[in-house]
Specification:
The chain folds into two domains: 11-88, Winged helix-like DNA-binding domain superfamily/Winged helix DNA-binding domain (Arc Repressor Mutant, subunit A), CATH 1.10.10.10; 92-231, Up-down Bundle (Four Helix Bundle (Hemerythrin (Met), subunit A)). The longest helix is centred in the last third of the chain and has 26 residues, at 255-280. Helix 5 (116-130) runs antiparallel to helix 9 (185-203). It is elongated and about 60 Å long. It contains twelve helices and two strands; from the N terminus they run H-H-H-E-E-H-H-H-H-H-H-H-H-H. It has a two-stranded antiparallel ribbon. The chain has 281 residues and is mostly helical.
Length: 281
């Protein structure tokens, strides 16, 4: 029997495969709610971002539905077959971590070598970003131009291509589905402020500040995508695309408050017993 190539499967794909198997076996029936992301991460011994990437992959496949503020539910699949390219799609957090590492170093060097012409291109893309609606195709075009312009200031065509290709992965179905829940005009304004900080550090020729500003921007992008489902909608943004008003999650009983209430009840009972005994005497 001929040998077959060994595929090093991405961790989030392994998690997705395990959850899919449990769904197929009936462990999680159609209509049932999965454990929370935190609970799944604890049971699987992986990070919450890895669990989120797996859940998004299964939602894109049509196996799950994420209901903001309610939970993650198993649905009847319209077609069981997974996308043919699933095994080669990088997870959104994987991509952002790679960009954080690479583009921080690029911004640092850009602060050393950027010319007036380079800054003019960076400024032009930033100005375009300020005057476009988000989310939308145009905002992504100008966002990409900003990051590519910074890479372009190093005069290295390979870096320009790599930065552009990494950014283009935002168009993959998993990244697009994740962005659907968390991107809105409010997050766009926040990201714009982070872009300005990168630009200002490069213009000031401050390599340390430029590296930190870019690292901070891409780290915060990860944090925005990692927040609890429903957090954006709960913030009151009219653009948060929630299918329904988020239900408030049930709060775990406050054990400290319960103990205080019990102690208070005991004291009150003891006081009443003492008072009754005094009256009988």
């Amino acid at each position: 029997m001929p040998l077959e190539a060994v595929e090093a499967r991405r961790l989030y794909r392994q998690v997705a495969d395990q959850l899919r198997s449990l769904i197929d076996s009936g462990e999680y029936a159609v209509g049932s709610r999965l454990p929370t992301e935190r609970e799944l991460a604890e049971q699987l011994k992986v990070s919450r971002p890895t669990v989120r990437e797996a859940l998004i992959a299964l939602e894109v496949e049509g196996r799950l539905r994420i209901r903001v503020g309610s939970g993650i539910y198993v649905i009847e699949p319209a077609a069981v077959a997974a996308p043919a390219t699933a095994s080669v799609i990088e997870g959104p957090f994987e991509l952002l971590r790679a960009r954080e590492f690479l583009e921080s170093a690029i911004a640092e060097q850009a602060a050393r070598v950027a010319t007036k012409d380079d800054l003019a291109r960076i400024d032009a893309s930033l100005l375009a970003m300020e005057n476009v609606e988000h989310p939308g195709e145009a905002s992504m075009v100008h966002d990409r131009a900003f990051h590519v312009a910074i890479a372009g200031s190093l005069g290295n065509a390979v870096l320009v291509r790599v930065v552009g290709e990494l950014f283009d992965q935002r168009l993959n179905p998993y990244f697009a589905q994740l962005a659907h829940y968390f991107e809105n005009p409010g997050t766009w304004r926040t990201a714009l402020d982070e872009h300005r900080a990168v630009r200002d550090a490069i213009a000031a020729h401050d390599p340390d500040a430029a590296r930190e500003a870019m690292r901070n921007h891409l780290a915060r992008s990860q944090a925005r995508f990692a927040q609890n489902f429903g957090a954006v909608a709960a913030s009151g943004s009219s653009s948060a695309r929630s299918p329904a008003t988020p239900a408030k999650p049930e709060r775990a009983p406050n054990k400290r408050a319960e103990r205080q209430a019990k102690n208070q009840a005991k004291k009150q009972a003891k006081k009443q017993a003492t008072s009754g005994s005094a009256r009988r005497r």
